[in-house]
Amino acid sequence: xxVFQVDTAWSxxxxxxxxxxxxxxxxxxxRLKMLASALNYRDLLVPRRGYGSRMKTLPLIVLSDGVxxxxxVGRGVDAYRIGDRVCPLFFSSWxxxxxxxxxxxxxxxxxxxxxxxxxxxxPASMLASVPAHLExxxxxxxxxxxxxxxxxxVTEGRVKPGDTVLVQGxxxxxxxxxxxxxxxxxTVICTSSSDEKLKRARALGADDTINYLSTPEWxxxxxxxxxxVGVDHVVEVGGQGTLPQSxxxxxxxxxxxxxxxxxxxVMDAPLGLxxxxxxxLQGITVGSGEDFVAMARAIxxxxxxxxxxxxxEFAQLxxxxxxxxxxxxxxxxxxxx
Length: 337
Ligand SMILES: NC(=O)c1ccc[n+]([C@@H]2O[C@H](COP(=O)([O-])OP(=O)(O)OC[C@H]3O[C@@H](n4cnc5c(N)ncnc54)[C@H](OP(=O)(O)O)[C@@H]3O)[C@@H](O)[C@H]2O)c1
Description:
26% helix; Quinone Oxidoreductase, Chain A, domain 1; 2 domains; 16 strands; binds NADP nicotinamide-adenine-dinucleotide phosphate; 9 helices
């Protein structure tokens, strides 16, 4: 079968189409005929061994997001049938509950092979069904960015109707967070480097917007937008470069979900504000199978659709990665198998 893998050495140049034997489902496993995959920021780092020694030895099939249709069911699997459309979970050993070292130890397209393959064999315990109304490309976006946003907004964030949530940028995680926060009846402030993207964020439900390039001191502006007291929740994807502004935007007792480090990974912020404002800094690393199931139920009931920026063909993965690296996208970039 055809796969896209980092083959002989860790570098962008070694990300190539390759051949692997077609796998067969064993006891407790199912086989998926893959339909679509989706990209995440981390997929840009994987070919350079950006996650260090915990990464699998080569060759490594890339990408952590994907959806497939079950075409083989192994002995002892009762929960799924041939024809079901399912996503493999981002973490293969985090079915439910709080994070632990074991739960966080194996993720697709990093420590174990990912979704850019014609077929995947997956333990039935590592799967979740997808909402029926979603197109394949939309469903492929759910395991990483959507579950991360769900855990930030719902599981850990406990956002309530009437809260104000600030989301940074218009990438995958931020737009899912915007959509989940609106689903819960919150007010959303969205930042972006582009006025055009902010217009689209408003169409998606953002109540207020700030261009973080033309307004570098956006933290105070966001606080004023939230009645002068500050926002209840910040979905932080910038890290070092954005946390100082997030600490100005958040209300006393509010939460900052620490998700990404697009603007640097070293702590360089007025930590006194964390103390004196009782701010909760909550680290998030995707989420569990239980998070996926709760999220998929909410998406099915609400009819929400993930924002897909563009769909590329399987062989166009390098072009799709260039598009992601350019930052021109709004929402998710997908691959049709
Ligand atoms: N912890 C986790 O579980 C987890 C899960 C998924 C992703 N992440 C991390 O979260 C970050 C975002 O991931 P993603 O997949 O959503 O990426 P993405 O789709 O590539 O989105 C990136 C967007 O972030 C915005 N951005 C970039 N620099 C910014 C800055 N300095 N301030 C504010 N916004 C900025 C830009 O939006 P505009 O173009 O609108 O300016 C950009 O388009 C990455 O660091 C990723 O590794 C973490």
